[in-house]
C-alpha cells in the first residue's frame, strides 16, 4: 500500500514486519527515528520483540550476537561513530556466521565531527565480511530489509548484512513508499531456522580459538559464503520481483547505458540525482548513462565488466576516500576492469554532507570527457 | 577431597574406594597429594 | 545440584598444572548442571578449554570478545525469554575482562537487570597475556606492567571493590568465594543461579604461574589469603552483607612470603613499611566485614 512516509519510519515498519525476536540498538543521529519508532511499536504491543536499551553500540551488536547465537532473528541500526565502535564485533559476528541485519544510516566519521551524510562509515568496514546493500531511495531501503534477511539466513550464506541508506537525505525525507502487508512479508520471509544455535539439548561451542593450522580455512569458507551470496541475492531478489513487482535480482542496475559513451558509477541516494542529470544530458544530445551499484559486498566485479565493456570512459562518484589512496569504489571498479583500456576517472565528492547537484554531475561528466579525474570535486579553495 | 579439587577432573574412584588419577590427563601438579588429609597420595617424578 | 556433572567439564584441557581457574570451571559446572549456556570472555579459561577443534565444555558455550560477555549474555537472555526457554545463562570472565575492559557491558547488563549470573575467576592480573596488571591486582604485587624495581614497589593501587560496585547496581545477590573452600563455591553459585536478576560471584583463583608458587600449593595459598584477611568471603543480599567467613587472623607476611610476586618486599631486605601498609588493608577488611574471630583464650585477634 502506497504511503508518504519518512525513510526511517518505513524502515522501522519493514523491520517490524520481518518479526525480529530481539532488537538491541543505541541511539545515534541520524538513525534515532528508526529505533524510537521501533520502541513505540514494542510499547504499544504492535511488535512482539525483546528490546534491549543497551549502553553503547558496542554492546548493541554484542547483544545481537548473543541473541542470534541463541537462535533468534535479531536487528540493530547505527551509523558513523557507532559503527566504528562496533568494528571489533562486526568481524566477530561475521566470523561466527550469524545472520544479523543492521541498518546503516550513512554518516561521515569524525574528526572533524559531522552528523551529515557520506558513506565513509560502511565503506570503511568493507573488509569485515558483512554483505553490503546501498539503497537509492526509501522504497529500496524498505524492500532491501526483507531481502537482506532472506539472503542472510539462507543456509548457503549465513552472513550478516548492512542495509545502507544515506543519513538525512533518505532517513529523514518523506517519499512515497509502497509498504507490503504483514501477510506479504510472512509469505516472502518465513521464520528464522538456525542451522546451529546455543542449546542445552545439543551443546556446541561457538567462537573458539583457531591455531595457524585452521584459521586460513575458516577465512576461506567465510569468503566462499560471501561469493555464494551472489546467487542467493539473485534468487531472493527475483522471487521478490515475482511476488511484489519490484525485481532486486541484479547487484547492479544500468540506466540509459545501452549506447553510452560515458558511464557514471555511483551508490546510494546520489543515483537519483545522477538519473536526472543523465536525462538532461541525453536531451542535450550527450550519450551518458548510470551504472548503479546496489550490492557492494559481494563486489559485483563480473557484472560491472559485462555492463561497461562498450563505454568510452567511466566516471566513478565516491562519497568516501581511502585516505592516501583513492575512493574505494573507483579502486574496485578499476580492479574489475583490469586488462581493459577504458579510462576510469574517480571523483571524491559529497563528503560530510556536501550537496551534490545535477549541475555537479554534468560538470563531472565534462571533466571525465577531458580526461581529468582522480580528484576531490567541489573543493572550496577559499576555505583552504 | 582430591576428586573434588583436581583441576583436571581426572581422579576417579575405584570400586575399593581408592582414588586414582588418570595418568593420561594428570599434569602432576600435586594438589591432590598436598590436600589429602590422610596423605594417601604421593607424587613421584617421572624419570626418562 | 547436578549428578555426575563433573563430566560436563572434560579432561584434557590445556591449563597449567595446578590451575586455580581450571578448578573454578569444574566447580561452576558442578553447580549449574547441563541446562546452562556459558558465555565466556577471552582469557585463560577460554583459551585452555577451546583449542579448535577440541572443547572441554559439554554444555552450550560461546566466546565472543574480551570485553563483551555481559552484553552477549544480555542478548541470550532476551532470546531465551522470547523463545520461552529456561536454560540458565552464566557469564564467566577473568578479572581482566570483568574489572577493566568489560566494565561497560557489565555495568549495563546489571543496570538493566537481566536474569543471569556473572562469575569472575579472580587471579588478580591479565594472566593469559603474560601476567599484566589489572584493576584486581593487589597493592604492591609485581606484574609485568607494574614490576617491582629500583623506583617501584609493584602495583601502586589497591584492588577495585567490584562486589560493592555491583551491589550498588541493585544486584540481588553478590558473593565472594575462594577455591580454597570448594563446596562454598558450589553453594554460592547455586544460590546465584537460582536468584532471579543479575547476580555476581567473585572467586579467588590463585595462579601458580602468575603469582610464583608451586602448583600443589594452590589451595593452601587460597586459604592463607583468607586467613590473613586480604581476601574476605562474604555474601550480600540486596546490598546488605548477610554472611561473612570469620577467621583467626594471621599476619599478612605468612601469605606474602609464599609468592614470588611479593618477593621484593622481603629481598634483598624486608620492607617493613610496605608490609605494614598491606597489613593495614587486611585490618581494614576485617573491620569492614567483621571477620575477626574472638577466641576466649586470646582477647584480641592476632595483629603484629
List strands and helices in order, with pairings:
The complex is a heterotrimer of chains A (384), B (48) and C (304).
Chain A lengths: L1 E5 H11 L4 E3 L7 H12 L6 E3 L4 H13 L4 E5 L1 H6 L1 H9 L5 E6 L13 H4 L7 E4 L3 H16 L7 E6 L7 E5 L3 H7 L16 E2 L8 H30 L7 E4 L6 E5 L3 H14 L4 E6 L1 E3 L3 H8 L4 E6 L9 H9 L7 E5 L9 H12 L5 E2 L8
Parallel strand pairs in A: 2-3, 2-4, 4-5, 5-7, 6-7, 11-12, 11-14, 14-15, 15-16
Antiparallel strand pairs in A: 1-8, 6-13, 10-12
Helix pairs in contact in A: 1-2, 1-7, 3-5, 7-9, 10-13, 11-12
Chain B lengths: L1 H4 L5 E3 L5 E3 L9 H5 L13
Antiparallel strand pairs in B: 1-2
Chain C lengths: L19 H13 L3 E5 L3 H6 L11 E3 L5 H15 L4 E7 H7 L1 H10 L4 E6 L25 E2 L2 E2 L8 H7 L4 E6 L3 H12 L5 E6 L3 H4 L6 H10 L6 E4 L2 E5 L8 H4 L15 H18 L15
Parallel strand pairs in C: 1-2, 1-3, 3-4, 4-8, 7-8
Antiparallel strand pairs in C: 5-6, 7-9, 9-10
Order of strands across the widest beta sheet of chain B? 1-2
How many H/I helices of chain C? 11
Number of extended strands of chain C: 10
Distance between the termini of chain B: 31 Å
What structural category do the secondary elements of chain B indicate? alpha+beta
**Residue fraction in strands of chain B:** 5-15%
Report the top-level CATH class of chain C.
Alpha Beta
Strand content of chain C: 15-25%
What value does the average pLDDT of chain B take?
79
Q: How would you describe what is shown here?
A:
The complex is a heterotrimer of chains A (384), B (48) and C (304). Chain A has helices at 7-17, 32-43, 57-69, 80-85, 87-95, 120-123, 138-153, 182-188, 215-244, 270-283, 301-308, 328-336, 358-369; strands at 2-6, 22-24, 50-52, 74-78, 101-106, 131-134, 161-166, 174-178, 205-206, 252-255, 262-266, 288-293, 295-297, 313-318, 344-348, 375-376. Chain A is α/β, with parallel strands linked by helices and 384 residues long. In chain A, the strands form 3 sheets. Chain A has a 7-stranded mixed sheet with strand order 3-2-4-5-7-6-13, with helices on both faces. In chain B, a hairpin with a 5-residue loop joins strand 1 (11-13) and strand 2 (19-21). With 48 residues, chain B is an alpha+beta fold. Chain C is α/β, with parallel strands linked by helices and 304 residues long. Chain C is built from 11 helices and 10 strands. Chain C has helices spanning 20-32, 44-49, 69-83, 95-101, 103-112, 162-168, 182-193, 208-211, 218-227, 253-256, 272-289; strands spanning 36-40, 61-63, 88-94, 117-122, 148-149, 152-153, 173-178, 199-204, 234-237, 240-244. The longest helix of chain C is centred in the last third of the chain and has 18 residues, at 272-289. Chain C is globular. The model of chain C is unreliable at 1-6 (pLDDT under 50). The chains are: A alpha/beta (384), B alpha+beta (48), C alpha/beta (304). The interface between A and C is large, with 44 and 43 residues. Strand 9 of chain A pairs parallel with strand 2 of chain C.
Amino acid at each position: 500500500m502506497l504511503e508518504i512516509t519518512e525513510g526511517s519510519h518505513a524502515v522501522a515498519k519493514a523491520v517490524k514486519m520481518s518479526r525480529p525476536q530481539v532488537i538491541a540498538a543505541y541511539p545515534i543521529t541520524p538513525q534515532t527515528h528508526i529505533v524510537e519508532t521501533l520502541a513505540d511499536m514494542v510499547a504499544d504491543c504492535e511488535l512482539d520483540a525483546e528490546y534491549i536499551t543497551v549502553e553503547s553500540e558496542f554492546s548493541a551488536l554484542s547483544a545481537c550476537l548473543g541473541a542470534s547465537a541463541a537462535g533468534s532473528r535479531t536487528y540493530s541500526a547505527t551509523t558513523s561513530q557507532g559503527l566504528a565502535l562496533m568494528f571489533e564485533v562486526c568481524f566477530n559476528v561475521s566470523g561466527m556466521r550469524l545472520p544479523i541485519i543492521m541498518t546503516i544510516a550513512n554518516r561521515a566519521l569524525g574528526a572533524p565531527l559531522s552528523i551529515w551524510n557520506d558513506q565513509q562509515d560502511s565503506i570503511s568496514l568493507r573488509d569485515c565480511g558483512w554483505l553490503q546493500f546501498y539503497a537509492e531511495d526509501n522504497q529500496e531501503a524498505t524492500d532491501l530489509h526483507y531481502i537482506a534477511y532472506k539472503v542472510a539466513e539462507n543456509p548457503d550464506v549465513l552472513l550478516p548484512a548492512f542495509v545502507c541508506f544515506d543519513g538525512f537525505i533518505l532517513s529523514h525525507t518523506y517519499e512515497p513508499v509502497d509498504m507490503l502487508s504483514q501477510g506479504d512479508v510472512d509469505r516472502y520471509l518465513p521464520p528464522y531456522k538456525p542451522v546451529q544455535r546455543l542449546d542445552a539439548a545439543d551443546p556446541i561451542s561457538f567462537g573458539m580459538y583457531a591455531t595457524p593450522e585452521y584459521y586460513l580455512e575458516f577465512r576461506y569458507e567465510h569468503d566462499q559464503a560471501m561469493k555464494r551470496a551472489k546467487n542467493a541475492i539473485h534468487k531472493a531478489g527475483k522471487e521478490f520481483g515475482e511476488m511484489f513487482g519490484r525485481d532486486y535480482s541484479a547487484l547492479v542496475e544500468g540506466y540509459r547505458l545501452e549506447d553510452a559513451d560515458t558511464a557514471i558509477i555511483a551508490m546510494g541516494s546520489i543515483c537519483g540525482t545522477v538519473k536526472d542529470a543523465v536525462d538532461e544530458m541525453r536531451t542535450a544530445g550527450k550519450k551518458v548513462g548510470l551504472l548503479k551499484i546496489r550490492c557492494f559486498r559481494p563486489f559485483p566485479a563480473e557484472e560491472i565488466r559485462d555492463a561497461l565493456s562498450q563505454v568510452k570512459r567511466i566516471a566513478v562518484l565516491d562519497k568516501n576516500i581511502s585516505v592516501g589512496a583513492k575512493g574505494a569504489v573507483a579502486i574496485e571498479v578499476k580492479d574489475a576492469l583490469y586488462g581493459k583500456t577504458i579510462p576510469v576517472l574517480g571523483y571524491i565528492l559529497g563528503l560530510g554532507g556536501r550537496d551534490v547537484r545535477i549541475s555537479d554531475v554534468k560538470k563531472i561528466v565534462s571533466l571525465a570527457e577531458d580526461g581529468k579525474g582522480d580528484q576531490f570535486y567541489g573543493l572550496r579553495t577559499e576555505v583552504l | 577431597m582430591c576428586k573434588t579439587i583436581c583441576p583436571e577432573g581426572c581422579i576417579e574412584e575405584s570400586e575399593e574406594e581408592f582414588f586414582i588419577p588418570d595418568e593420561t590427563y594428570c599434569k602432576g601438579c600435586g594438589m591432590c597429594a598436598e590436600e589429602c588429609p590422610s596423605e594417601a597420595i604421593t607424587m613421584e617424578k617421572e624419570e626418562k | 545440584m547436578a549428578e555426575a556433572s563433573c563430566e560436563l567439564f572434560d579432561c584434557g584441557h590445556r591449563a597449567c598444572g595446578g590451575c586455580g581457574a581450571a578448578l573454578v570451571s569444574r566447580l561452576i559446572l558442578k553447580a549449574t548442571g547441563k541446562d546452562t549456556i556459558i558465555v565466556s570472555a577471552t582469557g585463560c579459561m577460554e583459551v585452555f578449554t577451546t583449542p579448535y577443534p577440541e572443547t572441554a565444555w559439554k554444555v552450550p558455550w560461546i566466546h565472543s570478545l574480551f570485553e563483551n560477555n555481559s552484553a552477549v549474555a544480555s542478548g541470550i537472555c532476551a532470546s531465551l525469554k522470547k523463545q520461552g526457554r529456561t536454560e540458565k545463562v552464566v557469564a564467566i570472565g577473568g578479572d581482566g575482562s570483568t574489572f577493566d575492559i568489560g566494565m561497560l557491558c557489565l555495568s549495563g547488563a546489571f543496570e538493566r537487570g537481566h536474569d543471569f549470573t556473572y562469575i569472575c575467576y579472580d587471579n588478580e592480573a591479565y594472566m593469559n597475556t603474560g601476567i599484566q596488571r589489572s584493576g584486581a591486582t593487589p597493592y604492591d604485587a609485581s606484574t609485568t606492567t607494574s614490576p617491582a624495581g629500583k623506583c617501584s614497589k609493584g602495583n601502586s593501587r589497591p584492588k577495585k571493590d567490584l562486589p560493592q560496585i555491583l551491589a550498588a547496581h541493585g544486584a540481588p545477590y553478590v558473593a565472594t568465594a575462594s577455591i580454597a573452600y570448594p563446596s562454598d563455591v558450589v553453594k554460592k553459585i547455586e544460590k546465584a543461579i537460582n536468584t532471579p536478576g543479575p547476580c555476581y560471584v567473585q572467586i579467588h583463583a590463585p595462579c601458580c604461574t602468575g603469582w610464583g608458587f608451586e602448583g600443589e600449593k594452590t589451595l593452601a595459598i587460597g586459604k592463607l589469603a583468607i586467613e590473613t584477611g586480604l581476601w574476605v568471603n562474604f555474601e550480600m543480599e540486596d546490598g546488605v552483607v548477610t554472611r561473612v567467613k570469620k577467621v583467626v587472623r594471621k599476619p599478612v607476611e605468612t601469605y606474602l612470603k609464599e609468592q614470588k610476586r611479593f618477593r621484593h618486599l622481603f629481598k634483598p631486605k624486608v620492607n617493613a613499611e610496605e608490609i605494614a601498609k598491606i597489613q593495614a588493608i587486611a585490618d581494614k577488611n576485617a573491620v569492614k566485614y567483621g571477620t575477626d574471630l574472638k577466641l576466649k583464650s586470646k582477647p584480641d585477634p592476632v595483629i603484629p
